[in-house]
Amino acid sequence: MPKARAAKEKLLDAALSLIREKGFSAMTVDDLCARAGVTKGAFFHYFKSKDELGVAAAEHWSAVTGALFERAPYHDAEDPLDRVLGYIEFRRALLRGDIPEFTCVVGTMVQETYGQYPQIRDACAASIFGHAGTLTDDIAEAMTKRGLVADWTAESLAAHSQAVLQGAFILAKAKNEVGVAIESVEHLRRYVELLFTHPSTVEKKQ
Amino acid sequence: MPKARAAKEKLLDAALSLIREKGFSAMTVDDLCARAGVTKGAFFHYFKSKDELGVAAAEHWSAVTGALFERAPYHDAEDPLDRVLGYIEFRRALLRGDIPEFTCVVGTMVQETYGQYPQIRDACAASIFGHAGTLTDDIAEAMTKRGLVADWTAESLAAHSQAVLQGAFILAKAKNEVGVAIESVEHLRRYVELLFTHPSTVEKKQ
DNA sequence: CCATACATACCAACTGGTTGGTATGTATGT
DNA sequence: ACATACATACCAACCAGTTGGTATGTATGG
């Protein structure tokens, strides 16, 4: 097999673009094949159905973004709060270019599929909350280190950060402009800073 | 005309449900007619195309939700910050029942249409930011009253609140459970409280 | 008061193009 | 020789939109 599996990965990459451009439902199998430069025979050789491609696209997205965030520099900070704030700054810096370039495949896809395709929904949930999980430890460590007494959990703040990002993408799509998304991420950063510096919740360690 | 316009309003109401259940693209004209109990002839009598129904559905959604929020009790509070926090609590209380009952028509629709149907996108933007606009004055008044020195605007905080809500809907759809959305709205409430009580930003008025 | 003229509100059947999916071919590497 | 990796050709169902029609208004003139 000379260039084996080329078609499958080209189809998956095409899916990541097309889902962000027009959504899962409006994306046709012909669209996918044209974008990938293959024929329908190739598509159905690798995927039993369009639904199955949806699941594979969510998993592919997890792999691609997982690698991106894994090698991001914010992990190098010594202070856990700096790592959390570094993550938010990293997300803010990603908000550039055209809308399909910075928006989220699984966030878009789950909106259309949650009621009709449980397998796609679960794959999207795994992607979103799996990514949120990479934040939880840093948040928890920051809470411990700063002696934070909180009525919220590290897990819920990690999930909230994903909510802000997903919502920011929606506002950007509605306004057809990235600025409103950037401002929302800056509110998220300010929130985290306030959480960890407000005297009512922080007990100074000596 | 005894029951004139009945078909049109039934079609618009059907659209609000169907868009939240399966999205705009996956919703067919036949779906709409079946749900509304009318025929395709009636549909195309009132709407030139499915796109045009999308625009009308966004406007209908603005009217329906506009009336809901206009008569909500949080406006009665004397203190502007209490009105803002009352709004957030009102939104939190709406997070009940099945997912299509509390999620947002225009937030869902704009994700699928922003690139292909500019008119629908603009109608969705008008709905989202029009609603955000009803918050801006209360936020601005609260800032003035508390002598808040901020590097953010009332408008951006109003928009951010919509981002949090839209993102919370996405997380709820992914998890197929409302709890995660509620927690995110509680983070939003906490953020607003911190913004207006943190000593670094508030100059006490005597 | 009423007949003519026309508009509005809707329906049932149909159409051409699109859709996801299949059946069958063929080239290539092992 | 045989499995893998595709391409070609095709189908049945479905899709948005059209057509031709009916039933019920409502405005106007005599």
Report on the structure:
The structure is a homodimer of 206-residue chains. Chain A has 206 residues and is mainly α. Chain A has one domain: Tetracycline Repressor, domain 2, CATH 1.10.357.10. The first copy, chain A, is 74% helix and 0% strand. In chain A, helix 1 packs across helix 4, helix 1 packs across helix 7 and helix 7 packs across helix 8. The longest helix of chain A is centred in the middle third of the chain and has 28 residues. The radius of gyration of chain A is 19 Å and the shape is elongated. The termini of chain A are far apart. The mean pLDDT of chain A is 94. The interface between A and B is large, with 53 and 53 residues. Chain B binds a DNA duplex (30 and 30 nucleotides) through helix 1 and helix 3.
What's a quick, concise take on this entry?
The structure is a homodimer of 206-residue chains. Chain A is mostly helical and 206 residues long.
